[in-house]
Amino acid sequence: MPPKLPKPEELANVNYKPPKKWWQKGTAEIKEGFWCFGSRPKYLQAVDMPNPREWKPTDEDWKLPDNWREIFLEGMAERLQKYRSFHLFMDICVRCGACADKCHFYLGTGDPKNMPVLRAELLRSVYRKYFTPSGKLLGKIAGARELTPDVLKEIWTYAFQCTECRRCSVFCPYGIDTAEITIIARELLNLLGLNTDWIMGPVANSYRTGNHLGLEPHTIKSNIDFMLDDIETVTGIKVEPSFNRKGAEILFVTPSGDLFGEPGIYTCMGYLMLFHELGLDYTWSTMAAEGGNFGFFTSNDMAKKLAYKIYSEAKRLKVKWILGGECGHMWRVWNQYFDTWHGPADFLEAPVSPITGTRFENAKGSKLVHIAEFTSDLIRHKKLSLDPTRNDHLQVTFHDSCNTARGMGIFEEPRYIINNTCNHFYEMPENTIREKTFCCGSGSGLNAGENMEQRMRGGFPRANAVQYVKERHGVNMLANICAIDRATLKPLMDYWVPGVNVAGVHELLGNALIMKGEKERVIDLRGEPLPGKEGA
Amino acid sequence: MALNNLLKEKEAVILKRWFDAILETYAPETANQLRQVHDPFANPASQSIRQCIEGIFRKITGQIFTEKDSLSLENMLKLRAIQDITPSQAVSFVFFLKMIIRDELKNEAYSAALYNKLLSLESEIDETALLCFDLYVKHRQKIYELKSEEIKRAAFMLLRKSNQQPCSMEER
Questions:
Q1: Cα–Cα 20 to 30 A to A429, which of A38, A239, A290, B143?
Q2: pLDDT tens-digit profile of B9-59?
Q3: For testing the chain B interface, which of A9, A17, A469 should be mutated: the one with the most B CBs within 10 Å?
């Protein structure tokens, strides 16, 4: 007898309610669009990191060493002792939920495990089981759980669904920095060779060539030559920067994305024009041509190792101080870690602007000055001639990058530059900017292509705020001071808010800057006609 | 009473039930958050759902379907296209409306005059679901386009050097 067929009304009766799952079970669903490719062995071998092998996150067997559990737990014990903050963060959370709806990934995915509290709980439950008497004795009742392969996979999945943006920490009444928990979780995973290709590639490249993209010195120079040709086309001025010049006053370092990708190169053109106009005694380095530090997304030791190339190069070139371009996590690392790792940098001098005489007291330890501070100081002292009408076709809003905003408190400087180079600037709503800024959704090494859906989810709250100012004020340009933002906000805008473009603040400055001896400008740095010069 | 008037009378109840039915498809913690937080910037997903269902309701009840409504429909499907759900789940929310309207009008719907109108209203809901499916597919395709465009942007200088992009500004 044939099986009984369901009636139409039975077929239509679909239950859309998700099944109730007990979160502590550890369900490691590795789903398309969420994960980044596992690191290729050659990258791990290049920097001598553990367990190099071919693996894919969707494989059942992750080819872990036999004693993986011991390695993980010993690593955890070591870090609990080493970092008091980590130990505290494991203990003091009362699960009040203040952070729960502050995470852009939670708002975009709707997955409760992306609530910062629950994401941290994935690791905390393991901590309780192995490091607290209550967890050892009471197990599940005390919120503790065994470190099983599924739990490990779950920790991996969610450690790479956090951009370490620290928005949740702004709202935590205890000041728990969930980003730091993610950082440690990733460190522990790295002990087992569980990292992503998109992070390890730049780490290995940086170690070998001094930059993420693996650009050789001649490539860096020829890329900048292309930009110099473009600057000459726009302004009629031939800019001639120097490379690896010993005895220059300042070493300039920017993320290598500005040297290669679009629209980063337009920001780089802005730097080149500014320095030329000032007659600044500075040099580029082709050996330390990278401000970014993807080592920061693997382990403290790797980040420290890669960071030193900047100081080492400054020492070799005998410069006085270091100026850094527009970047996010580069500045988090420079501002918060450099001094601790390698300071005091007493082979350098306390930075003083050669143009205005301003002493950058905040940077007297690390000797690292942010270009937004440097440029806003120039504008404040009226050292630049600017024509903001050249940006009149732009209705600009500003995205505070998580790292420069929450990591170092740079709020006013970029806004000051924008207000002096553009006539139309509009802020996004108060709870989406400054220290409460929403992440681009692609930071901390998550800006790969294979997880594009996840990036669009993570960037949804940011895009939503941009859409608001677009509807209200006709905003068509999203300015920022971060190379990853420049790369990743573009697809985010193309998806959520088509018609809004993305630019670095120094691109806007390059357009507005009146240079001595320049020809009449008719096009901007992208080769587009300036307002009122369409027929020229 | 005309069907549209009846629906307008019950608009608040229908929209609430529809919103709740959509939230039921999320995890309970997320549903609570979507229900409770009303700030459009702190809770953009909730705002997208609300605006979208209000727009669709206006459309099927013969009210003016504005450009803003069209944008909110786009936004909802953009969200559904990237969330971790199947294509059928992504557009399923439209069909919830049918069930809710049938239930809300169960006492009135069987009068002969209203019954025919209800059938054509349901056809309109079906059409809206098809429109949503088109939007869903459009945004899924957009994801792949974003991936390829991003690769081109990241290798912009390489493409210029290999003459795959205009080499200089004059050539552009």
A1: B143
A2: 999 999 999 999 999 988 888 999 999 988 999 999 999 999 999 999 999
A3: A17
Q: Do A222 and A188 share a structural domain?
A: no
**One domain, residues A182 and A316:** no
Contacts of residue A231, defined as CB under 8 A and 6 or more positions apart, other chains included, come to A237, A239, A269, A272, A273, A525
SS3 (DSSP) at A251: strand
One-letter identity of residue A112: P
Report residue B154 as tokens: 């990241």
Q: In what order do the strands lie in the sheet with A250-253?
A: A282-284, A250-253, A321-324, A368-370
C-alpha to C-alpha distance for B55 and A236, rounded to whole angstroms:
53
Same domain for A114 and A230?
no
Chain B partners within 8 Å of A226 (Cβ): 157, 160-161
Residues A321, A326, A327, A331: is their CA dihedral positive or negative?
Answer: positive
CATH number at residue A27: 1.10.1060
What pLDDT is recorded for position B152? 86
Q: Output the pLDDT for position A225.
A: 95
Contact yes or no for A108/A170 (Cβ under 8 A): no
**Strand A396-398 vs strand A321-324: parallel, antiparallel, or unpaired?**
unpaired
Residue A299 near residue A190 (C-beta atoms within 8 A)? yes
Question: Are residues A218 and A114 part of one domain?
Answer: no
- Domain boundary residue among A173, A195, A217? A195
DSSP string, chain B: --HHHHHHHTHHHHHHHHHHHHHTTS-HHHHHHHHH---TTT-HHHHHHHHHHHHHHHHHTT----HHHHHHHHHHHHHHHHSS--HHHHHHHHHHHHHHHHHHTTTTTTSHHHHHHHHHHHHHHHHHHHHHHHHHHHHHHHHHHHHHHHHHHHTHHHHHHTTSS-SSTTT-
Question: Architecture of B3-141 per CATH?
Answer: Orthogonal Bundle (1.10)
Return residues 244-283 of A near B (CB < 8 Å).
Answer: 257, 259-263, 265
What is the ipTM metric for this complex? 0.93
Cα nearest neighbour of A523 on chain B: B169
pLDDT at B146 over 80: yes
Q: How many CB pairs under 8 A join A and B?
A: 127
pLDDT digits (tens, 9 = 90+) for A455-509: 999 999 999 999 999 999 999 999 999 999 999 999 999 999 999 999 999 999 9
SS3 A159: helix
Contact criterion met (CB below 8 Å) for A252 and A271: yes
3-class secondary structure for A107-132?
Answer: HHHCCHHHCHHHHHHHHHHHHHHHHC
